[in-house]
Amino acid sequence: MKEIIVDKAQANQRLDKYLKRVFREAGSGFLYKMLRKKNIVLNDKKASGSEILGEGDVIKVFFSDETFDKMRGAGKRLGDDDVFDRIRSLDHSGLSILYEDDDIIAAVKPFGLLSMPDGEGSENINDMILARLISEGKLTLESYRIFHPSVANRLDRNTGGIILFGKTLKGSGYLTQMIRDGLLIKTYVCVCHGIVEREEILTGFWTKGADNTVSITPFERDGAKQVKTGIRPIAFKEGDTFLEVRLYTGRTHQIRAHLSGIGHPILGDPKYGRGKKDGFDHQLLFCHRVRLGDLDLEAPLPSCFDEFR
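^ that's the sequence the OP posted. Answer follows.
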């Protein structure tokens, strides 16, 4: 017999969903059979699988050691162990945390840092946050094997600003639902070429090419998705505009492509503008404010915007 104690990160989910995460190689039919035969019990009682787990609940599993390891996917678990060990050793001292509660974290991603791992070992803010949680004892290897906390909203490598991270299954689910329902409101600032004279909501039709470059046109095309981007000029300097931008839809490179499409590419943008010819190593685009339900967050503007304010 083996015991599994549910921790905070795994709470607030159905028992059957949790068991499927733990025993990744087991089919649903097998797990329900084990529940019916009381080979898996919850808090010493027979369970159906529909129960909602709470922190500290005890799941007892009456499997042989061989079956237990086989159903858990021992080979895949070793892969998780290697990743966990690598992340644990990462330096996270430069991480800037804007907000944290029991379920979510809001961090400030610097320019030039990836949001998520790229498979090539590049530094990324997702792993930095994981390293911080591990160092604080908030994430264990056992819980990581079952659920991988991660970033919910990605920013391009050369875009800075607020990024949201789900610490627990509950937090990840909440962030995913808010994004899906359009209830995550993100406001950016940027500096673009030319004078943007008035506040307006830009509309257009977004398509993505094979080279990961997107285009936004005022006319509809086959397979295109409609997008909305709100813009408000704040200040002007030497023919450039310091602009506030609100995303009403969230498509890849939406702000960059939309502004470029109306003749006002962002300074420093290597894909939709002139890139380093503007004298910057990154595009001047920053996720400045986020509204998430009753939570309003604002990140300090980096120094690259000082001369435009």
